[in-house]
Structure formats: structure tokens, C-alpha cells
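Question:
Write out your own:
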Amino acid sequence: MSAGSDPSPGAPSDGGRSIEASRLPSPAAPIDGGRSIDWSRTSTDYATHRPGPPPRLYELLAVLGVGGPGQRLLDLGTGTGLVAREFARRGAVVSGIDVAAGQIAAARESARGEGLALDFAVAAAESIPFADASFDAVVASQCWMYFDVERTLAEVRRVLEPGGVLVTTHFSWLPRADPVARASEALVLGVNPAWQGADWSGRIAAEPAWAAGRASVTAMFWFDADIAFTRASWRGRMRACRGVGASLPDADVAAFDAALAAWLDAHTAPTFTVRHRIDAHVLSPWPTSDAAATPALAEKGFSAGAD
């Protein structure tokens, strides 16, 4: 999902922006060495091949009071609207923004195809085009690390109702645990050595580094899931990643795709799974919060507050 203005602070994220295992060292540093990123170029593959997070993410968030029927929810960096549409299916009143016009066009088309009423707009997270106190929750899925934190937090605080929450989530493959993810990353680096999305450790911090002194974690959780792909859908998934389709010339994308197809033919069955880790932090987006702590759940990696 992307909601930002360029490949530095506020640029589109790789993933979901479904959803890559990217944990960049600093949101103030140029992404991938400053290489130009255009998510609109990936819109077809993105809409066709990038899966959204599994249902369990939404079920756990619902326990925490996020995404229920009638709740007004804003999805930052909505991309093709994967997360926004799922919240809408569950009864939330959803708006979504993204800086990539091609992604918003795909999001609108997908929503129309499902008969879902969502409000999508081309806009940056740092300049949200909605009135004060318009939302009960703001969600950023696989994109928060690319925003200008101070400007985006100011906007999030402005558009939230008092007591509203910010949710940051990720849906990331695990290259250190999954051979398909590991080999695919090596092929990306072969055509794009500047790509910084490789070799994520899988570690989930109880409190995101950016939140210190700015926001209060009220709950967090993570869990793993094996996500099913065919060879064709994984190739599409990888073409839609930031390090390939969003940033490389067409000839390099084709070369990468051919190399990945050959590797998959040699090393996988026609259908296979790729291990992913899903995480979420629910935050009060103010430096201090009087909100009561959320009771812990009997879920893998679940924590109420920082632990």
C-alpha cells in the first residue's frame, strides 16, 4: 500500500501494500538507494496476484474493537484496496487513500465488482482529504514505515474521533524460514541489488521504534500462516513487489520473471505454500493515553500493551 509522496519519507510501501518483509532502518533514509518507485506500474499484478492477510487478522482486530459493523475506518496506503474491502465486507464504513492513481483505479474497480461501497481517493497519508474527527480507526497495512511520521501522525490525530485508534499491520513472508521466499529474494537482488526488502529476521518489536514518545501501544499480536500459491500466482506476487515491477525497466522485470519461473519449475510442485508472519499493533496515537489496557488473548504472540 502506498500513501506518501515520493521514494523518500512517505513513499509507497511494498506490500499491501500486501506485503513484503521489509523493515527499513529509518523512514528518513532514501528507500532502495533512492530508486524511483511507481506502484501504478504494478496495478494489474497487484490486483490479481497479491493476496490479502488471512481472516485471523481481522478476527483478532475485531476482538480489540477494530473493524466492526458501522465503525468508520480509514485505510492509509490502500493500494488496490485488499484490506479496505475486507473491512467493508465485515460491515465497517471504509475509506481508503493512496498516492498511486493506478492503484486507486484498481481498488475502485474491484469494489464495484463486489458491490461494495467504499470511498477511495488519491491522496498522501501526510495530507488526508477528510474532515476532523471523521473516523473511529485508522489502519496502515505494510506502509507506515514509509511515511513522514510527524506529519502523518498529526493528520491521523486530526481525523480520528477522541479515543480513536491507529492500527499498523504487516503481512510478510519469512525468508529465513521458507526456501521459496529465500530463493525468490536472491533472484530479486540479482536484478536489483539496491532493494532493501530482503532477509527480514521475523522479529516483531513490542513497541515500534517510531512510537516512542509519540504514541502508546494498547495491544499487539503476531502469528504465522502458510499461504497457498501456484507457480503463476507466486510469479505475479513477486513481479508486484517493490523491488521488481514497481521500480525496474520492463526488460529487467521480464528477465526476473523468467529466472523465477525456471527456479519454481525445478524446485516446487505446481502448488505450494510460503510461510508468512502477520503482525499488528493497536495504538493510541498520542504520547500518553488514559485508555484501559486491552485484556490479553490466548493467541500466539499476543500481548496487551508492550511486553
Observations:
- Residues 31-284 form a domain with the Rossmann fold fold (CATH 3.40.50.150).
